[in-house]
Amino acid sequence: MGKLGAAGKAGAVGKPGAMRGLAAVGRLRAAGRPRAIGRLRAKTEGIIVASDYRLARHRLLYVLLFGGLAMAAVVALFPVVWLALSSFKGPVELYRTPLTLLPDQVDLRKAAQVWQTLAFGRYYLNSLWVVAGAVASAVLVNGLLAYGVSVLRPAGHKLVTALMMGSLMIPPILNMGPLFRQIVALGLIDSYIPLWLVFGANPFYFLIMTTYFDRLPRALFEAARIDGCNGLQMFWKVAVPLSRPILAVVAIFAANAAWSDFLLPFLVLRSDALQTVMVKIYTLQAASATMQGFGPDKLLMVLVLASLPPVALFVLFQRRITSTVATTGLKE
Predict the structure, then answer these.
(1) Which of 126, 203, 208, 233 is the most exposed, having the fewest neighbouring CB atoms within 10 Å of its CB?
(2) How do residues 165-194 score in pLDDT, each as one tens digit?
(3) What is the pLDDT of residues 252-290, one digit of tens each?
(4) Residue 294 near residue 286 (C-beta atoms within 8 A)
(5) Phi, psi dihedrals of residue 47, rounded to the nearest 5°
(6) Helices (H) and strands (E) in the chain, counts
Protein backbone atom coordinates (compact mmCIF):
# COMPACT_ATOMS: atom_id res chain seq x y z
CA MET A 1 0.00 0.00 0.00
CA GLY A 2 2.88 2.22 0.83
CA LYS A 3 4.53 1.58 -2.54
CA LEU A 4 1.30 2.02 -4.39
CA GLY A 5 0.59 5.19 -2.51
CA ALA A 6 4.07 6.45 -3.23
CA ALA A 7 3.81 5.47 -6.90
CA GLY A 8 0.45 7.13 -7.13
CA LYS A 9 1.83 10.27 -5.59
CA ALA A 10 4.85 10.13 -7.91
CA GLY A 11 2.60 9.64 -10.94
CA ALA A 12 0.37 12.46 -9.83
CA VAL A 13 3.35 14.71 -9.49
CA GLY A 14 4.82 13.55 -12.80
CA LYS A 15 1.57 13.95 -14.82
CA PRO A 16 -0.55 16.54 -13.02
CA GLY A 17 -2.63 17.46 -16.10
CA ALA A 18 -3.54 13.86 -16.98
CA MET A 19 -4.42 13.01 -13.37
CA ARG A 20 -6.63 16.04 -13.03
CA GLY A 21 -8.31 15.10 -16.33
CA LEU A 22 -8.96 11.52 -15.16
CA ALA A 23 -10.21 12.78 -11.84
CA ALA A 24 -12.57 15.15 -13.60
CA VAL A 25 -13.91 12.35 -15.81
CA GLY A 26 -14.39 10.19 -12.75
CA ARG A 27 -16.28 12.94 -10.96
CA LEU A 28 -18.51 13.47 -14.00
CA ARG A 29 -19.29 9.76 -14.24
CA ALA A 30 -19.94 9.56 -10.52
CA ALA A 31 -22.17 12.60 -10.65
CA GLY A 32 -24.04 11.60 -13.82
CA ARG A 33 -24.77 7.96 -13.03
CA PRO A 34 -26.79 8.37 -9.83
CA ARG A 35 -28.61 11.34 -11.34
CA ALA A 36 -29.67 9.31 -14.39
CA ILE A 37 -30.67 6.36 -12.22
CA GLY A 38 -32.53 8.71 -9.92
CA ARG A 39 -34.48 10.15 -12.85
CA LEU A 40 -35.29 6.65 -14.08
CA ARG A 41 -36.52 5.57 -10.64
CA ALA A 42 -38.66 8.67 -10.41
CA LYS A 43 -40.33 8.00 -13.75
CA THR A 44 -43.98 7.37 -12.97
CA GLU A 45 -45.60 8.89 -16.07
CA GLY A 46 -46.24 7.30 -19.44
CA ILE A 47 -47.03 3.73 -20.44
CA ILE A 48 -43.55 2.49 -19.45
CA VAL A 49 -42.78 3.40 -15.83
CA ALA A 50 -39.70 2.78 -13.67
CA SER A 51 -40.80 -0.67 -12.48
CA ASP A 52 -41.03 -1.92 -16.08
CA TYR A 53 -37.30 -1.44 -16.63
CA ARG A 54 -36.52 -4.24 -14.17
CA LEU A 55 -37.55 -6.86 -16.75
CA ALA A 56 -35.14 -7.65 -19.58
CA ARG A 57 -37.87 -7.83 -22.22
CA HIS A 58 -39.12 -4.38 -21.26
CA ARG A 59 -35.61 -2.95 -21.49
CA LEU A 60 -35.28 -4.56 -24.95
CA LEU A 61 -38.63 -3.07 -25.98
CA TYR A 62 -37.46 0.33 -24.77
CA VAL A 63 -34.27 0.08 -26.84
CA LEU A 64 -36.24 -0.96 -29.95
CA LEU A 65 -38.74 1.85 -29.48
CA PHE A 66 -35.99 4.40 -28.93
CA GLY A 67 -34.09 3.17 -31.98
CA GLY A 68 -37.21 3.24 -34.16
CA LEU A 69 -38.09 6.77 -33.07
CA ALA A 70 -34.53 7.93 -33.64
CA MET A 71 -34.58 6.52 -37.19
CA ALA A 72 -37.96 8.15 -37.87
CA ALA A 73 -36.58 11.48 -36.65
CA VAL A 74 -33.57 11.17 -38.96
CA VAL A 75 -35.80 10.33 -41.95
CA ALA A 76 -38.09 13.27 -41.17
CA LEU A 77 -35.32 15.79 -40.61
CA PHE A 78 -32.96 14.78 -43.43
CA PRO A 79 -34.90 16.57 -46.26
CA VAL A 80 -34.98 19.77 -44.20
CA VAL A 81 -31.26 19.56 -43.44
CA TRP A 82 -30.47 18.75 -47.08
CA LEU A 83 -32.49 21.75 -48.27
CA ALA A 84 -30.81 24.10 -45.81
CA LEU A 85 -27.28 22.92 -46.72
CA SER A 86 -27.90 22.73 -50.48
CA SER A 87 -29.23 26.28 -50.57
CA PHE A 88 -25.70 27.54 -49.88
CA LYS A 89 -24.19 25.60 -52.79
CA GLY A 90 -23.52 27.16 -56.18
CA PRO A 91 -25.15 25.84 -59.40
CA VAL A 92 -22.01 23.87 -60.36
CA GLU A 93 -21.54 22.47 -56.87
CA LEU A 94 -25.20 21.47 -56.75
CA TYR A 95 -24.84 19.05 -59.68
CA ARG A 96 -21.27 17.98 -59.01
CA THR A 97 -20.59 14.25 -58.74
CA PRO A 98 -20.06 12.59 -56.43
CA LEU A 99 -22.80 14.35 -54.53
CA THR A 100 -21.84 15.94 -51.23
CA LEU A 101 -24.02 16.94 -48.31
CA LEU A 102 -22.00 19.84 -46.96
CA PRO A 103 -21.42 22.97 -49.09
CA ASP A 104 -17.92 24.23 -49.76
CA GLN A 105 -18.75 27.43 -47.89
CA VAL A 106 -21.69 28.97 -46.02
CA ASP A 107 -22.23 32.53 -47.16
CA LEU A 108 -25.24 34.21 -45.56
CA ARG A 109 -24.94 37.08 -48.05
CA LYS A 110 -26.55 34.77 -50.60
CA ALA A 111 -29.79 34.85 -48.61
CA ALA A 112 -29.71 38.65 -48.51
CA GLN A 113 -29.00 38.78 -52.25
CA VAL A 114 -31.98 36.54 -53.08
CA TRP A 115 -34.19 38.55 -50.72
CA GLN A 116 -33.31 41.83 -52.41
CA THR A 117 -33.41 40.49 -55.98
CA LEU A 118 -36.96 39.20 -55.64
CA ALA A 119 -38.17 41.97 -53.32
CA PHE A 120 -39.23 39.10 -51.11
CA GLY A 121 -40.18 41.38 -48.23
CA ARG A 122 -43.36 42.43 -50.02
CA TYR A 123 -44.55 38.81 -50.33
CA TYR A 124 -43.60 38.20 -46.72
CA LEU A 125 -45.79 41.13 -45.67
CA ASN A 126 -48.65 39.85 -47.83
CA SER A 127 -48.42 36.43 -46.19
CA LEU A 128 -48.24 37.98 -42.72
CA TRP A 129 -51.35 40.01 -43.50
CA VAL A 130 -53.18 36.86 -44.60
CA VAL A 131 -51.98 35.04 -41.47
CA ALA A 132 -53.19 37.84 -39.18
CA GLY A 133 -56.69 37.81 -40.65
CA ALA A 134 -56.86 34.02 -40.69
CA VAL A 135 -55.83 33.79 -37.02
CA ALA A 136 -58.41 36.39 -35.97
CA SER A 137 -61.13 34.64 -37.96
CA ALA A 138 -60.20 31.15 -36.71
CA VAL A 139 -60.10 32.16 -33.06
CA LEU A 140 -63.13 34.46 -33.01
CA VAL A 141 -65.63 32.61 -35.23
CA ASN A 142 -64.76 29.07 -34.19
CA GLY A 143 -64.51 30.18 -30.56
CA LEU A 144 -67.96 31.74 -30.57
CA LEU A 145 -69.47 28.70 -32.27
CA ALA A 146 -67.81 26.28 -29.87
CA TYR A 147 -68.84 28.44 -26.90
CA GLY A 148 -72.46 28.50 -28.06
CA VAL A 149 -72.59 24.74 -28.60
CA SER A 150 -70.72 23.81 -25.42
CA VAL A 151 -71.90 26.42 -22.89
CA LEU A 152 -75.09 28.11 -24.08
CA ARG A 153 -76.46 24.99 -25.79
CA PRO A 154 -79.46 26.51 -27.61
CA ALA A 155 -82.05 24.37 -29.38
CA GLY A 156 -80.43 22.61 -32.31
CA HIS A 157 -76.89 22.66 -30.96
CA LYS A 158 -76.63 18.89 -31.41
CA LEU A 159 -77.51 19.28 -35.09
CA VAL A 160 -74.80 21.94 -35.47
CA THR A 161 -72.30 19.64 -33.82
CA ALA A 162 -73.31 16.75 -36.06
CA LEU A 163 -72.97 18.89 -39.19
CA MET A 164 -69.53 20.11 -38.13
CA MET A 165 -68.39 16.56 -37.37
CA GLY A 166 -69.83 15.35 -40.66
CA SER A 167 -67.87 17.99 -42.56
CA LEU A 168 -64.70 16.30 -41.33
CA MET A 169 -65.55 13.40 -43.61
CA ILE A 170 -65.58 15.60 -46.74
CA PRO A 171 -62.19 16.06 -48.45
CA PRO A 172 -61.38 19.79 -48.53
CA ILE A 173 -60.61 19.69 -52.26
CA LEU A 174 -64.28 18.90 -52.98
CA ASN A 175 -65.29 22.22 -51.40
CA MET A 176 -62.96 24.21 -53.61
CA GLY A 177 -65.22 24.35 -56.67
CA PRO A 178 -68.39 25.69 -54.96
CA LEU A 179 -66.28 27.97 -52.75
CA PHE A 180 -64.52 29.53 -55.72
CA ARG A 181 -67.82 30.09 -57.55
CA GLN A 182 -69.16 31.97 -54.53
CA ILE A 183 -66.00 34.06 -54.31
CA VAL A 184 -66.34 35.01 -57.98
CA ALA A 185 -70.06 35.77 -57.58
CA LEU A 186 -69.34 38.08 -54.64
CA GLY A 187 -66.58 39.89 -56.54
CA LEU A 188 -63.87 38.95 -54.02
CA ILE A 189 -61.15 38.10 -56.54
CA ASP A 190 -57.87 39.85 -55.67
CA SER A 191 -59.02 40.25 -52.08
CA TYR A 192 -57.75 38.77 -48.84
CA ILE A 193 -61.27 38.53 -47.35
CA PRO A 194 -62.05 34.98 -48.62
CA LEU A 195 -58.65 33.80 -47.39
CA TRP A 196 -59.55 35.07 -43.92
CA LEU A 197 -63.13 33.84 -43.79
CA VAL A 198 -62.31 30.31 -44.89
CA PHE A 199 -60.54 29.77 -41.56
CA GLY A 200 -63.67 30.79 -39.65
CA ALA A 201 -65.45 27.49 -40.32
CA ASN A 202 -62.93 24.81 -39.51
CA PRO A 203 -64.32 21.61 -37.91
CA PHE A 204 -60.98 20.68 -36.36
CA TYR A 205 -60.64 24.01 -34.56
CA PHE A 206 -64.30 23.72 -33.52
CA LEU A 207 -63.69 20.23 -32.12
CA ILE A 208 -60.69 21.06 -29.96
CA MET A 209 -62.30 24.27 -28.66
CA THR A 210 -65.59 22.52 -27.87
CA THR A 211 -63.68 19.82 -26.00
CA TYR A 212 -61.88 22.46 -23.96
CA PHE A 213 -65.03 24.48 -23.21
CA ASP A 214 -66.77 21.29 -22.03
CA ARG A 215 -64.19 21.02 -19.23
CA LEU A 216 -64.73 24.54 -17.88
CA PRO A 217 -66.68 24.69 -14.56
CA ARG A 218 -70.30 25.56 -15.21
CA ALA A 219 -70.53 27.28 -11.82
CA LEU A 220 -68.42 30.15 -13.15
CA PHE A 221 -70.87 30.83 -15.97
CA GLU A 222 -73.83 30.59 -13.59
CA ALA A 223 -72.16 33.08 -11.23
CA ALA A 224 -71.51 35.46 -14.13
CA ARG A 225 -75.13 35.15 -15.23
CA ILE A 226 -76.32 35.96 -11.70
CA ASP A 227 -74.05 39.03 -11.77
CA GLY A 228 -75.91 40.24 -14.84
CA CYS A 229 -73.69 39.10 -17.71
CA ASN A 230 -75.36 38.11 -20.95
CA GLY A 231 -74.12 35.34 -23.21
CA LEU A 232 -71.59 37.47 -25.10
CA GLN A 233 -70.22 39.04 -21.91
CA MET A 234 -69.75 35.58 -20.39
CA PHE A 235 -67.72 34.64 -23.46
CA TRP A 236 -65.39 37.63 -23.15
CA LYS A 237 -65.13 37.76 -19.34
CA VAL A 238 -65.21 34.06 -18.41
CA ALA A 239 -64.56 31.75 -21.36
CA VAL A 240 -61.77 33.70 -23.08
CA PRO A 241 -59.60 34.32 -19.97
CA LEU A 242 -59.88 30.65 -18.99
CA SER A 243 -59.22 29.39 -22.51
CA ARG A 244 -56.07 31.22 -23.45
CA PRO A 245 -54.04 27.98 -23.88
CA ILE A 246 -56.44 26.46 -26.42
CA LEU A 247 -56.94 29.81 -28.15
CA ALA A 248 -53.17 30.08 -28.51
CA VAL A 249 -52.98 26.59 -30.00
CA VAL A 250 -55.75 27.35 -32.51
CA ALA A 251 -53.94 30.57 -33.42
CA ILE A 252 -50.70 28.61 -34.00
CA PHE A 253 -52.45 26.01 -36.17
CA ALA A 254 -54.25 28.70 -38.17
CA ALA A 255 -51.05 30.71 -38.65
CA ASN A 256 -49.15 27.69 -39.92
CA ALA A 257 -51.98 26.64 -42.25
CA ALA A 258 -52.50 30.16 -43.61
CA TRP A 259 -48.79 30.62 -44.26
CA SER A 260 -48.50 27.29 -46.11
CA ASP A 261 -51.79 27.56 -48.01
CA PHE A 262 -51.36 27.62 -51.77
CA LEU A 263 -54.39 26.56 -53.82
CA LEU A 264 -56.99 29.11 -52.70
CA PRO A 265 -54.54 32.07 -52.68
CA PHE A 266 -53.37 30.98 -56.15
CA LEU A 267 -56.96 31.03 -57.43
CA VAL A 268 -57.98 34.26 -55.71
CA LEU A 269 -54.89 36.49 -55.85
CA ARG A 270 -54.28 37.40 -59.49
CA SER A 271 -52.15 40.55 -59.02
CA ASP A 272 -48.45 40.08 -58.40
CA ALA A 273 -48.49 42.82 -55.75
CA LEU A 274 -50.97 40.81 -53.64
CA GLN A 275 -49.40 37.38 -53.96
CA THR A 276 -48.30 35.46 -50.92
CA VAL A 277 -44.97 33.70 -50.49
CA MET A 278 -46.29 30.30 -51.61
CA VAL A 279 -47.91 31.70 -54.75
CA LYS A 280 -44.77 33.65 -55.57
CA ILE A 281 -42.65 30.50 -55.29
CA TYR A 282 -44.94 28.74 -57.77
CA THR A 283 -44.78 31.56 -60.30
CA LEU A 284 -41.06 31.85 -59.71
CA GLN A 285 -40.49 28.26 -60.78
CA ALA A 286 -42.04 28.99 -64.18
CA ALA A 287 -40.20 32.30 -64.61
CA SER A 288 -36.79 31.23 -63.30
CA ALA A 289 -35.77 29.86 -66.71
CA THR A 290 -35.95 33.37 -68.19
CA MET A 291 -34.37 35.16 -65.20
CA GLN A 292 -30.68 35.80 -65.74
CA GLY A 293 -28.49 34.63 -62.87
CA PHE A 294 -31.34 32.92 -61.05
CA GLY A 295 -30.53 29.22 -60.96
CA PRO A 296 -31.86 26.28 -58.96
CA ASP A 297 -29.55 27.13 -56.07
CA LYS A 298 -31.30 30.49 -55.66
CA LEU A 299 -34.66 28.74 -55.79
CA LEU A 300 -33.55 26.46 -52.94
CA MET A 301 -32.62 29.56 -50.95
CA VAL A 302 -36.12 30.95 -51.57
CA LEU A 303 -37.60 27.72 -50.20
CA VAL A 304 -35.45 28.06 -47.09
CA LEU A 305 -36.59 31.65 -46.55
CA ALA A 306 -40.21 30.58 -46.97
CA SER A 307 -39.80 27.77 -44.44
CA LEU A 308 -38.38 29.89 -41.64
CA PRO A 309 -41.64 31.24 -40.08
CA PRO A 310 -43.40 27.83 -39.70
CA VAL A 311 -40.22 26.24 -38.34
CA ALA A 312 -39.74 29.07 -35.84
CA LEU A 313 -43.40 28.84 -34.83
CA PHE A 314 -43.16 25.12 -34.17
CA VAL A 315 -39.87 25.37 -32.28
CA LEU A 316 -41.19 28.11 -30.00
CA PHE A 317 -44.53 26.45 -29.23
CA GLN A 318 -43.72 22.76 -29.67
CA ARG A 319 -44.62 21.72 -26.14
CA ARG A 320 -47.96 23.51 -26.15
CA ILE A 321 -48.92 22.11 -29.58
CA THR A 322 -48.11 18.49 -28.78
CA SER A 323 -49.74 18.57 -25.32
CA THR A 324 -52.98 20.00 -26.67
CA VAL A 325 -53.18 17.57 -29.59
CA ALA A 326 -52.57 14.67 -27.20
CA THR A 327 -55.42 15.71 -24.90
CA THR A 328 -57.90 16.65 -27.63
CA GLY A 329 -60.97 14.44 -27.31
CA LEU A 330 -60.37 13.59 -23.66
CA LYS A 331 -62.97 14.60 -21.14
CA GLU A 332 -62.60 14.49 -17.40
Answers:
(1) 233
(2) 898 888 888 888 999 999 999 999 999 999
(3) 899 999 999 999 999 999 898 999 999 999 988 777 767
(4) no
(5) -70, -40
(6) 18, 0
